[in-house]
Amino acid sequence: MSWWQHAVVYQVYIRSFADGNGDGVGDIAGLTARLPYLADLGVDALWINPWYPSPMADAGYDVADYCGIEPDYGTLEQAQEFLAAAHHAGLKVILDIVPNHTSEAHRWFAAALADAPGARERYHFRPGRGPDGSQPPNGWQSVFGGPAWSRVADGSWYLHLFAPAQPDLNWEHPQVRAEFERVLRFWFDRGVDGFRIDVAHGLVKAPGLPDQAPEADAEGDPAMLDGAAHPAWDQDGVHAIYRGWRAVAGEYLPERVFIAEAWVADNDRLARYLRPDELHTAFQFDFLRAPWRASSLRAVLDDAMAAAAGVGAPPTWVLSNHDVTRTVTRYARSQPPHLVGADWERRRWAQEQADHELGRRRARACALLQLALPGTAYIYQGEELGLEEVEELPDEARQDPTFVQSGFADVGRDGCRVPLPWSGHAAPYGFSPAPVATWLPQPPHWGAHSVAAQRDDPESFLALYRAALASRREHWLAAGALQWLPSPPDVLAFSRGDLQCWVNTSDHPVSLPSSSKVLLSSTTGALGSATGESTALPADSAVWLCRSSRRHAAES
Ligand code: NOJ
């Protein structure tokens, strides 16, 4: 099996991971200094959110130069030193490529604004509608809110599916295709092991940029995160681009890999991105859209595994990332009976109090579920510390363009991007080497969740993740196919070979099989050996078992 088929990938949101130079913003120096932490945690690879020069209109997803490093984060030389150090520590490195749009500060867009010959053809410029052209060319809405079109000085309009500072590229243009293959080679030549592809389903738009079929969404809203059909998303023409990219990856040894971020309608559509000559893997997001309910989780797991198996790709398991509410908080309120969109939690945080301790119990249990599954698992920085969403950031601190573009109706994604607490009892909690204001403020209780506070506590979140990652490596990787076991209502139970995973989403304890030994439990109290007597699995918890005929050291 190749590494990417079973890897645990740790997502580094570089701006908030660790600050090396004391300016309150995470950087490459800080990340490099913390590599021992990541190696010790037991992950296999790092995915780093965009680290390229950017005006930061969308936290780096507005790229001004795809072959450079944002000065706030360091230099190209530091990036190369980091790559060497990560590889030395046994960690693969995946970068984030943003091909759907550039920054407005990209040289191509500057040339387009100056109306240099041919420059506008690399983007989607159109005349407006109406007698004086004052209406946008179509009714598409930006994912962040408001129209997906902005007007330039001479009266024409350009398309931006995200912020106005993120003009969409025209992928029908041969220069766009050639440039991105050059960018891929630039980083592959420097040893990068792969790319996560931002908005992988958005590059090609339906010919003529038609208004959306009225029955699909009356508001013309490209609800990207809900997978609704829209002429901007998931067009068949996108696949030829990825066939070209796969050929570039294949020029390298070992082959470089791609992970698609593609919010498409369902796993069957997603599987099309994973055909043998296209991308290697893709995020399957339903896991993070599922409520804490055994029946919903089981449906999501079955669907994801079947779709991946159909194209010979590993399933991928994501519980959170920099775009969605942190897992602890998602599980801290009443659970809906259906899958939810990425902004679901943000719409109800003011209405229903979050019980973070409940959320943490469930998040610990779900971590054991995630890490017992076949395929690739993603951990978003801070998930291993049990951090919750910082919901009550002051409005003036919020930086996500969603906040402004939604007319302040959606608080946006800043709450999951707050700088990590490393140590100490006062901000910046070891994030910066000096007492500076961090780019997003950290909450007063952050010290209780710091790495230093958890490191030596065997019952901490961090201890659970370290034990689970070590145990996954030792036991689960070779464990074989998943088979569901009979279980009581609201309980998930499956075996893989001699191993079992039990997850109790009900509100009462359930009995575990008596002939098994506990490998690891998400509960903080000891479960004890299950051999010879029936042991109860408490509500909102999970356990890994192995058949007692095999001798495994208990790790809990
Ligand atoms: C998806 C990224 O994860 C998100 O953070 C970003 O805002 C959009 N793509 C636009 O690039």
Supply database-style keywords:
556 residues, alpha/beta, TIM Barrel, Oligo-1,6-glucosidase, domain 2, Immunoglobulin-like, 3 domains, eight-stranded parallel sheet, five-stranded antiparallel sheet, 15 helices, 18 strands, 25% helix, globular, binds 1-deoxynojirimycin, isomerase, alpha-amylase activity, GH13_cat_dom
| Average residue pLDDT | 93
Strand content: 5-15%
From the alpha-carbon coordinates, what is the Rg to the nearest angstrom? 23 Å
Alpha plus pi helix count: 15
Task: Name the structural class.
Answer: alpha/beta
Strands in their spatial order, largest beta sheet: 9-8-7-3-2-1-11-10
Q: What is the H level of CATH, i.e. the homologous superfamily of the largest domain?
A: Glycosidases
Bound small molecules, which ones? 1-deoxynojirimycin
Shape from CA axes?
Answer: globular
Which residue ranges are poorly predicted, with pLDDT under 50 across at least 5 consecutive positions?
214-223, 550-556
For this structure, the quaternary state is: single chain
CATH class of the largest domain: Alpha Beta
CATH third-tier fold name of the largest domain? TIM Barrel
Task: Report the strand count.
Answer: 18
> In the CATH classification, which architecture of the largest domain applies?
Alpha-Beta Barrel
Number of domains: 3
Largest sheet: 8 strands, parallel
Question: Helicity range of the residues?
Answer: 25-40%
Measured distance between first and last alpha carbons = 29 Å
Family: Belongs to the glycosyl hydrolase 13 family.
GO molecular function, one term: alpha-amylase activity
Protein name: Alpha-glucosidase
Domain Glycosyl hydrolase family 13 catalytic: 11-417
